[in-house]
Amino acid sequence: MAERSFKKEVQALRLGDGDEFRGEGILAVTKALLQSGVSYVAGYQGAPISHLMDVLTDANDILQELGVRFEHSASEATATATLAASVNTPLRGAVTFKSTVGTNVASDALANLASGGVTGGAMLIVGEDYGEGSSIMQERSHAFAMKSQVWLLDPRPNLPKIVEMVEQGFELSEASNTPVMLELRIRACHVHGSFRTKANRRAEYTLKDAIESPRRDTGRIVLPPSSYLHEQEKITKRWPAAVKFIREHGMNEVFDGDARDVGIILQGGMYNGVVRALEVLGLADAFGNSRIPLYVLNVTYPLVDEEVVSFCAGKRAVLLVEEGQPDFIEQALNTVLRRADVQTRLHGKDVLPMAGEYTGGVLTAGVARFVERVAPELLAGRPLPRAARSVALPAASAAAASTAPVVARIDAASIPRPPRKAPAEVPANVAATVATAVHPRPPSFCTGCPERPIFTAMKLLERELGKHHVSCDIGCNLFSILPPFEIGATTMGYGLGWAGAAALNTQETSKRTISVMGDGGFWHNGLTSGVGNAVFNKTDNVLLVIDNGYSAATGGQDVLSSKAENAIRSTNNPIERAVRGVGVEWVRTVTNTYSIEQMRDALREALTTPTKGPKVVIAQSECMLNKQRREKPKQRAAIAAGTRVVRERFGIDPDTCTGDHSCIRLSGCPSLTVKDNPDPLRTDPIATVVDSCVGCGLCGEVSHAAVLCPSFYRAGIVHNPDAGDRRRDRWRRRIIGWLQSRIERRLAGLSA
Amino acid sequence: MSFDSVSRPRGDAVSAPAGGPAAAGEPGAPARAITVAIMAMGGEGGGVLADWLVDLGEANGFLAQATSVPGVAQRTGATIYYVELFPEAAARAAGREPVLALMPTPGEVDVVLASELMEAGRAIQRGLVTDDRTTLVASTNRVYSMTEKTAMGDGRVDAESLLAAGRASARRFVAADFARLAEEARSVIGASLFGALAGTGALPFTREAFEAAVRRGGVGVEPSLAAFAAGFGAAQAAGAEASAAQTAALAAAPAAASPRRTVLGPRLRAHEARSVAGFPAEVHEVLRAGVLRLADWQDEAWAADYLSRLEALPALRAAVAGEPPHALLSETARHLALWMSYEDTVRVADLKTRRSRFERVAAEVRLADGQLLDIGEFLHPRVEEIADTLPAALGRRLLASPGLRAFVGRYTRQGRVVKTSSVRGFLLLYAVAAMRGLRRRSLRFEIECARIAAWLARVEATAARDAALALEVARCQRLVKGYGDTHARGWSNFERLMTALDRLPPGVMSADGLRALRDAALADEGGTALGAAIAALSGTAAAPPPARAA
């Protein structure tokens, strides 16, 4: 069960011709797939397209009605290989994953798919995890499109456009026998909007047809001599066919403006940001009516040379807004203009940053710089908005300004300019204050997370055995590298935790390395790339598999070893069996990660046992986020129904806590924090447990295992106590109450 | 254009009024989107707030667009939700859909809602809060950052500086503890912030329209509306105040409630009289707190002992200089009281068995009528703590004898959970607390008294020649706190400081120098910073940190 349920929202997928759809970008894409008559969809979850997988999961009934096969792929490579169904048949299919991490994994399949080409429309929907909130290396999917020659769609972040691009993308794929990639940026995936729907289409040619009358064509298989022919075919047939289709269907858009001797070429995904920048500069209205003509590349690869030349012809200068690096498009545009001998000056990374996200502020500053350089008249008479001034502008080239011809037909009156008072600068002292007082707040383990005690145990073991080399993986477990744990030296990719420590094997030391892997990474590829590799190469090191029952970091999707029953998937395939299956003999499973002692003992044994060979410790406790989501409503219902329920949470006695915060340094739980010391004689803040505590028990375990402090208590709140409880309570009250009165008598008269 | 392109006709100039104070700007200004940024932390429900805003807009003649960055950012990290609202009438008049941005542009944000004070600071840092435009609604509650929480002393940033930054950078600043308001209504902070937003009047919607959006949301409606009302009220109150001084915020952080004064009871009258007669007025409050604590910790005689020790320090009492006056005496008195009431098993058992403590726990977990409470204590006494409690000679023997140690150690290897709410567990702790009578003969008592005497003598001796340094010496008691390993670490740091003080020539070790060393001792658990600081002072290479088990 995924973190977020779309059971309600997916009903919008049933909308018919002319209905209005309102909702998130991801849901709109799903609807577009169904309108396009896909026969199969697959993918691997990961932000920002996790919700697409979750939507599909919740829409499984609807998919089945339409005869659509839906798979939770084992990896992005699996997902992409799934598109093989479209190589010889007219079946349409789509797969989705996070990029560029997923595209990296998918590369092998992608290259094979792209080489032979496709018959049915094949689409890869990639969630471009770039910029703010991204959790991965900052790279571009563009490179993959170029190297394998698949077409890259980058639609304006506007629901009708995105839907149209999905539909046209399938046609483009079929017209050019080439897979297409639809790139959705993070915020576009989650943008809320509306569009007019069409009825869902059931494919005429079905999976059943494909299975019952198999088709093959040796010419589509990547093996010489076909592979050489594929390369020629890409250049001589598929590329021109794609360019023709893009032109004929107007997939790219031109929005004209009156300042005709300048222009802006932009990736579709940048459209809203660029228009806002122009609006802020007084060069466009809120509806995208821009004084500077815009050429919007909803298809960023391949470029349509004729369109580029035609847009640039007669312009002194154009600005290319291309997010990320290397500057592939800028290089390509320069080549196009050079070949066509067009003298238009191309600006891009000279006024915009080479690297990093093009946020609202960056775009405003960059566009302002461009306009100041090539057409300062357009900005005349208005102070620059703050965003344009916050980044120091390089002095506008005086030579360029003086030699520039007067911009033709400036229709200044047609753009209403917002009255704007010159904004005051942020006082320097305020800037200094916030710079020191605002700390980074990276994501971290959730309250009650079962992974936290594992790293606490490792931290405590470090005190005993010294530091070990720790190789990390991808997933929530990677938060271990941050304070307060600061455990882990490298991470080489999803499932590659153990592979990342492969070289560190030598008989010259008895010290072992520890590698970490989550259950998600384990099933993605870690079983072979890590465990199989370690067995085969006779490693003597330790793998710690964190088995929390879900692919948790991506939103709590099920994996093979999930304990939950899943109506459409096979779960409950234990990791220990898989590990033993590939030949690991030393395996310890700890079924309660909150027991620091058990965790520490298992790890200590793995690190110190004389037994040679690969050692695997499986740490098993359910992801707290998912557990709470499941258990909390049940608990509430039980309490409401009058059932006896004991709810636990932890607390700290303020008068015994001395404010050293060791407990926090060994836990880092969000519900364990500090507050003012109520003691008039003390100044250091004391630790406190806030109401969000879920009673996981780590605090108490830590104070036991690390011999910290007697301040922690566990409160058991008994809802709907039964007769036995009440009897016991009365008896206790009588005796304890009497003793407490004695204590009070001792203290009576000390304070008034 | 020579090629096939989508070339749309230019829309007519748009000048439809946006309808609200934020959107309209001046009359006749072009329509533009109302921009709202929500600064939140993952898992806090910022998404619900964004949903309400979208619904509010859509139900009241606005086109709405909301974006967020889900993913691992949702795992407790800082994140931004962003909403734009555009007047539908203006779009209709233009015959076109507006182009709404997916992320905020610095200087172009009408409303910033921050669910926490440091997050408000982050909005300011990112330039989202500007004095020509932005209404900043910030909750003054703090969710401390990891850096703030893990400090060995007090690592919290100055909240007042964040509030000042808010006042200085926003057009309008509304600050209140919206988390508390929400909690009191048993709702989420989104609800009280939504109410505050309504209360500021920054958006062109009535209170009823806001409330209707909450109702349509359908989840926890009644508590949400209660929190909404509380937030609304807080913002209105802030507004009333702000009208006097345009940017004045409701400095609603009642955190700095004046410290409760200690009033001594009839059994401590004599102590009171002795304090008043023998000490300057500036230290009376500390003395009262110290006397009460020590009487509570042991008995009246022990409290009298406390005063005697202070009376025996003429140099300290003579040192008036400093800010505030008598700081040396006052701080020494404070630290002496803390040291004389060191945390031992007797004290812990005593505090945990009191009725007031049971009541406090019940309040903290919000025990309701008809519910029962179990309290389990996480205790892990080691051989050392047991020896500490024994009469000195016996305790020493236990510690010195490996056989005895091993025997007792067998029972202390694991921590235990003592259920104080059960008769058995209570009696156990009650019995431990009753060992108070033996305390003055215990090993720990003997050790602490010797340490206290040495420390006081040092403060007194230093006071005669350098009162400022003496003050810092007195404050070094702060390092000695906690239990078990923590206490051992603190004591060893204290000793390292005192050794450094002895070794270094007087000119080298100034008050500032010692303070720097104390800060270094609180910088890391391993003692690395302290080693480096001592080495720097003595001009030698950094002493290696204490060896760790390898």
Characterise this structure.
By secondary structure, chain A is an alpha/beta fold. Helix content of chain A is 37%, strand content 15%. Chain A has a seven-stranded mixed β-sheet, with helices on both faces. Chain A starts with 19 loop residues before the first strand and ends in a 5-residue tail after the last helix. The model of chain A is unreliable at 391-424 (pLDDT under 50). The model of chain B is unreliable at 1-25, 243-257 and 541-545 (pLDDT under 50). Chain B starts with 20 loop residues before the first helix and ends in a 12-residue tail after the last helix. Chain B has helices at residues 21-24, 46-59, 88-94, 117-125, 146-150, 159-169, 178-184, 189-200, 207-217, 221-244, 269-278, 284-297, 300-311, 314-318, 327-340, 345-352, 355-364, 383-389, 392-400, 402-409, 423-433, 443-465, 467-475, 484-503, 511-521, 528-538, and strands at residues 34-41, 62-67, 78-87, 111-114, 135-139, 172-176, 372-379, 416-419. In chain B, the strands form two sheets. In chain B, strands 2-3-1-4-5-6 form a six-stranded mixed β-sheet, with helices on both faces. Classes of the chains: A alpha/beta (752), B alpha/beta (550). Chains A and B meet through α8, β9, α11, α12 and α14 of A and β2, β3, α3, α4 and α5 of B. β24 (712-719) of chain A pairs antiparallel with β7 of chain B.
